[in-house]
């Protein structure tokens, strides 16, 4: 464990070198939330009932805002950095360190998430809390959300590491990342909550790991689950996916190393 | 310390056909060609030895180094570094070795050099005393402080290489692999890097494996030489032995007579020898070892000229290597 803390510090330091990224992230997130909120307001204005898939407008606004913020926090740059190392061939040097590469990557990605959470997420949240009516969560919700958000970080890391390792298979990793970003955003419920998706699409989304990144945590926060059992179910699904993705990433990493070993760096 | 037993590395390279149609056809069917980068290399480097691993481009040097550092596994054969098979126990092996790849950086791109060292210290769990001793040494010999707090990505190649060499030695590795460690360095710094490597070897008994195209590095650092050609070791031994495989020797002398006449006289008198004028009125005589002994040549010169100065330079390593690569000498 002690060997991985310097990677975390280095990850944070590396990020702080580029201060403008925080500003850009903040502007992007603010704009995205603004556009979505006004879109939903128009949808609600055109309807007779004040509920959509069980969400009223303030709750849905809260959902949209927090979905954007969670998405931001999960953007840990791991996919970008891993694929970059693979393409430049620097992965060979990383193999020369007496540490586990995936674990070092996780350690380096974690502070990026935390920095985005404090430096970008909090101000954006505060801004919209001031501007728009939101639904305040219960304490149980906050507690469940905290556990769930932690698991969502692991899921997000696993997905990004797998995408980064795709750099071993294709040189067009940029394309893969664009596709990943939109697929993940959609099926995670960052654009539309899963509850508002048409039946078959929602079924697909529930079967995928991505719902554990945004829809799951936010349902727990906003109390949209069936009793304690329902909450446990959401967390269990997340935990299952977190473990499965970690295992998958480990297997993929092993295969990637074999590929380097056999084909050359 | 380093053992290679019949190391073989083969790559499957997709065969590309020429032209547009050829490129299109590789989209659907690929034919592979087997390339043997290293074919049955065996050698042993005892602890504390500074060995040069020399070969022309494409001789299989870096592939061998990659197998010894654990990045690649051999197709067949076996390697042992400090008792470990590097590609099987990569992380344990990584703790034992230091590596400089001239083309790649092991430093943290976005961080200043001192931060990279702090990270390495934690990763390798380097004891305080060792870390302080080594940093003082690097500061002394490589003037590391001059790099300041500039992020690595903004350093010049020469500045970065200094830090790379230091980074490879900071954890007191048992073996250090140096691949082109003086690329981009000026004469003073080249000298400093060589001094550092020699110092570490003398103090700690660090085993060194150097691959370089810089003959100066090889002669200043190495006491053993392995020459590889077409993936096989074609010469092993001390530097001195390698130089002695040269089939010509040279003598450079200064004399008081007329130079063109002297050159004529030498080429007529010493069958097979060649004489060239050098600057400062000196003449360089090259003679085949098979035809003439040093004694015969010297006495010829002393008999015919008023020799005022005379040196017999070591055979030129580059020339020796050229001959080996060309397949003229195999020892």
Automatic annotation (TrEMBL), chain A:
Keyword GTP-binding appears in the UniProt entry: no
Superkingdom of the source species: Bacteria
Transmembrane region(s): 21-40, 60-78, 106-131, 143-171, 183-208, 228-253
InterPro entries listed in its UniProt record: ABC-2_transporter-like (IPR010390)
Keyword Membrane: yes
Keywords: Membrane, Transmembrane, Transmembrane helix
One Pfam match: ABC2_membrane_6
Protein name stated in the entry: ABC-2 family transporter protein
UniProt organism field: Streptomyces cupreus
TrEMBL record, chain B:
Membrane topology: Peripheral membrane protein
InterPro entries according to UniProt: AAA+_ATPase (IPR003593), ABC_transporter-like_ATP-bd (IPR003439), ABC_transporter-like_CS (IPR017871), ABC_transporter_ATP-binding (IPR050763), P-loop_NTPase (IPR027417)
Residue ranges annotated for the ABC transporter domain, each copy included: 21-255
Sample GO molecular function, one term: ATP binding
GO biological process: response to antibiotic
Annotated localization: Cell membrane
Database matches in PROSITE patterns: ABC_TRANSPORTER_1, ABC_TRANSPORTER_2
Keywords annotated in UniProt: Antibiotic resistance, ATP-binding, Nucleotide-binding, Transport
Cellular compartments per GO CC: plasma membrane
Cross-referenced PANTHER family: ABC TRANSPORTER ATP-BINDING PROTEIN (PTHR42711), ABC-TRANSPORT PROTEIN, ATP-BINDING COMPONENT (PTHR42711:SF1)
Protein name listed in UniProt: ATP-binding cassette domain-containing protein
Organism: Streptomyces cupreus
């Amino acid at each position: 464990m002690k060997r991985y803390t310097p990677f975390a510090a280095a990850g944070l330091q590396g990020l702080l070198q580029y201060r403008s990224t925080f500003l850009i992230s903040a502007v992007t997130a603010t704009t995205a939330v603004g556009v979505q909120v006004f879109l939903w307001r128009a949808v609600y204005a055109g309807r007779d009932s004040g509920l959509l898939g069980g969400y009223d407008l303030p709750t849905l606004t809260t959902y949209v805002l927090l979905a954007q913020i969670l998405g931001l926090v999960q953007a840990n740059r791991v996919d970008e950095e891993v694929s970059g190392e693979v393409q430049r061939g620097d992965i060979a040097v990383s193999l020369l360190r007496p540490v586990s590469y995936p674990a070092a990557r996780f350690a380096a990605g974690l502070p990026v998430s935390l920095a985005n959470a404090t430096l970008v997420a909090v101000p954006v949240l505060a801004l919209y809390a001031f501007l728009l009516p939101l639904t305040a969560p219960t304490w149980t919700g906050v507690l469940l959300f905290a556990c769930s958000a932690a698991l969502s970080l692991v899921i997000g890391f696993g997905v990004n590491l797998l995408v980064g390792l795709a750099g071993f298979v294709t040189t067009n990793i940029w394309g893969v990342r664009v596709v990943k970003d939109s697929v993940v955003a959609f099926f995670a419920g960052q654009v539309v909550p899963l509850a508002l998706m048409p039946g078959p699409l929602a079924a697909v989304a529930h079967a995928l790991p991505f719902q554990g990144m945004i829809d799951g945590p936010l349902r727990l926060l906003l109390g949209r689950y069936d009793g304690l059992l329902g909450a446990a179910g959401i967390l269990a699904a997340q935990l299952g996916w977190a473990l499965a993705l970690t295992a998958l990433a480990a297997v993929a990493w092993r295969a990637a190393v074999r590929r380097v070993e056999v084909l050359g760096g | 310390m380093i053992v290679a037993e019949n190391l073989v590395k083969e790559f499957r390279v997709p065969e590309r056909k020429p032209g547009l149609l050829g490129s299109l056809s590789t989209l659907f069917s690929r034919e592979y060609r087997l390339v043997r980068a290293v074919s049955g290399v065996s050698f042993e480097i005892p602890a504390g030895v500074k060995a040069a691993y020399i070969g022309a481009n494409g001789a299989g040097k870096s592939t061998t180094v990659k197998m010894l550092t654990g990045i690649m596994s051999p197709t067949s054969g076996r390697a042992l570094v400090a008792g470990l098979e590097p590609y099987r126990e990569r992380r344990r092996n990584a703790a034992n070795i230091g590596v400089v790849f001239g083309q790649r950086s092991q430093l943290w791109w976005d961080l200043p050099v001192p931060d990279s060292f702090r990270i390495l210290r934690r990763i390798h769990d380097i004891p305080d005393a060792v870390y302080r001793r080594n940093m003082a040494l690097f500061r002394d010999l490589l003037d590391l402080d001059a790099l300041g707090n500039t992020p690595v990505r903004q350093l010049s190649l020469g500045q970065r290489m200094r830090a790379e060499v230091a980074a490879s030695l900071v954890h007191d590795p048992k073996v250090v692999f140096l691949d082109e460690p003086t690329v981009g360095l000026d004469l003073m710094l080249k000298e400093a890097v060589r001094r550092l490597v020699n110092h570490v070897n003398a103090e700690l008994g660090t085993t060194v494996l150097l691959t370089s195209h810089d003959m100066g590095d090889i002669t200043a650092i190495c006491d053993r030489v392995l020459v590889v050609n077409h993936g096989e070791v074609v010469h092993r031994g001390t530097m001195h032995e390698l130089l002695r495989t040269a089939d010509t020797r040279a003598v450079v002398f200064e004399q008081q007579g007329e130079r063109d006449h002297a050159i004529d006289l030498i080429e007529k008198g010493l069958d097979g020898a060649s004489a060239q004028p050098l600057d400062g009125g000196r003449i360089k005589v090259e003679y085949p070892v098979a035809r003439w002994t040093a004694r015969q040549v010297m006495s010829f010169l002393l008999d015919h000229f008023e020799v005022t100065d005379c040196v017999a330079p070591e055979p030129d390593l580059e020339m020796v290597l050229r001959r080996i690569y060309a397949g003229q000498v195999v020892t």
